[in-house]
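for ur thesis appendix - Biotin transporter. copy paste whatever u need, i formatted it the way the template wanted (i think)
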Amino acid sequence: MNQNSKFSVRDICYAGLFAAVIAVMAQISIPMPLGVPMTMQTFAITLAAVVLGSKLSAIATLVYLLLGAVGVPVLANFSGGIDKFVGPTGGFLISFPIMAYIIGLGVEHRDAFKGAFPVAVVVGTVVNYIVGVILFVIVAHSTVSVAVSACVLPFIPTAIIKAVLACVLGLNIRKRIPGVKKA
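the 3d part is after this line
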């Protein structure tokens, strides 16, 4: 992203491109018993954060969420609408821009602070889980232990795999695209 506060046409195109990537990856979805599907959204969010950095990936994620909120069928299972944000998976959706921003900060500061990048990936993912679990508990009138069993534990192995793949792929893409500060 450009160093000044204005976004270039290139920045806007990258944000739009990654909003589309998130929308496509959201359609790769495996239904789970308690209503929280396993999707590739978090892979796409992490990939966007690694490639675009904090601000631009958060914007790409917000664009994706705004499209979904107004009813464009970009969310998992070709769904959309504001009701998705107050349902059992709403917390995960709401936390995506925060997740992207945190992971993006890690990639931006990985040379200055050794270990910042992996820590940021873990923290971003944990924030996603925490917000997701909180809203699940509220909406589903569930206990925290049921929410963790439904929303976190089954996803940990794939979350690790998706995070590693998104980071490796993202760092390679980041090196090759013009206009993005090299990590």
